[in-house]
């Protein structure tokens, strides 16, 4: 409440001035009081608005924080599931790769073993074929040598027999000539004996030639047959060895 103004005569100029100033002060004081009141109201209203704004902001931040917490938990769960899925997938692929590696190593080992065994069998077959070939060549050479030696022996035997026959004929001719010497004094008997001896000798030569040719032919045929049979037997034996 404003203080009571001192009593002044209003008719004086000083009193008028003082009254004017007092009224001005009163109006100014009233204006200031009104300003203070409005300021207080504004402060109260501003405080309420600020409090409500702060509350709204706080609620909004809390809601956002809760949402972020939920999103974080959801993201963490998704990341955990994704990590678990990736881990399981990688482990499964790793096991598959390890199994594929083991299978590939086993397959490679089996193929190598098969190839080694096959090459060894082929090498053994080649060695056996070479040994059989050498053995067959040696046997063939021995059989050929045996046949040649046998032919040479048979030819030599034929020559010896021929010489014996020729020697026997010469001996018979000498004996015949010696027997003719007894008729040397009788030309007629000598001539008759010579004719008889000549005819007998001629017949003997003819018979000997016929017998010798037949014997030579028979011996040659027999020899050829023996050689042919031995050759056929040898070839059959070689063919059987080659087939085996």
Automatic annotation (TrEMBL):
Stretches assigned to coiled coil: 87-168
Start and end residues of each stretch annotated as Disordered: 207-228
InterPro entries reported in the protein's UniProt record: DUF2046
UniProtKB keywords: Coiled coil
Pfam family, one: DUF2046
Source species, domain of life: Eukaryota
Record's compositionally biased regions (Polar residues): 214-225
PANTHER family in the record: COILED-COIL DOMAIN-CONTAINING PROTEIN 6, H4 D10S170 PROTEIN-RELATED
Protein name per Swiss-Prot or TrEMBL: Uncharacterized protein
Biological source species: Aphanomyces astaci
């Amino acid at each position: 409440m404003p203080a009571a103004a001192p009593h002044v005569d209003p008719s004086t100029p000083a009193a008028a001035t003082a009254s004017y100033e007092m009224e001005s002060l009163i109006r100014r004081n009233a204006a200031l009081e009104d300003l203070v009141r409005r300021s207080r109201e504004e402060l109260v209203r501003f405080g309420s608005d600020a409090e409500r704004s702060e509350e709204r902001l706080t609620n909004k931040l809390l809601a956002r924080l809760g949402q972020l917490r939920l999103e974080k938990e959801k993201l963490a769960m998704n990341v955990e599931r994704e990590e678990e899925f990736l881990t399981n997938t990688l482990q499964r692929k790793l096991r598959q790769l390890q199994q594929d590696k083991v299978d590939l190593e086993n397959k490679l080992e089996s193929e190598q073993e098969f190839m080694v065994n096959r090459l060894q069998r082929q090498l053994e077959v080649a060695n056996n074929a070479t040994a059989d070939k050498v053995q067959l060549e040696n046997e063939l050479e021995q059989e050929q040598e045996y046949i040649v030696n046998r032919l040479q022996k048979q030819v030599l035997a034929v020559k010896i027999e021929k010489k014996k026959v020729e020697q026997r004929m010469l001996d018979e001719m000498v004996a015949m000539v010696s027997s003719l010497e007894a008729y040397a004094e009788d030309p007629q008997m000598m001539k008759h004996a010579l004719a008889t001896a000549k005819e007998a000798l001629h017949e003997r030569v003819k018979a000997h030639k016929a017998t010798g040719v037949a014997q030579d032919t028979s011996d040659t045929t027999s020899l050829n047959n023996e050689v042919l049979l031995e050759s056929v037997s040898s070839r059959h034996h070689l063919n059987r060895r080659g087939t085996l």
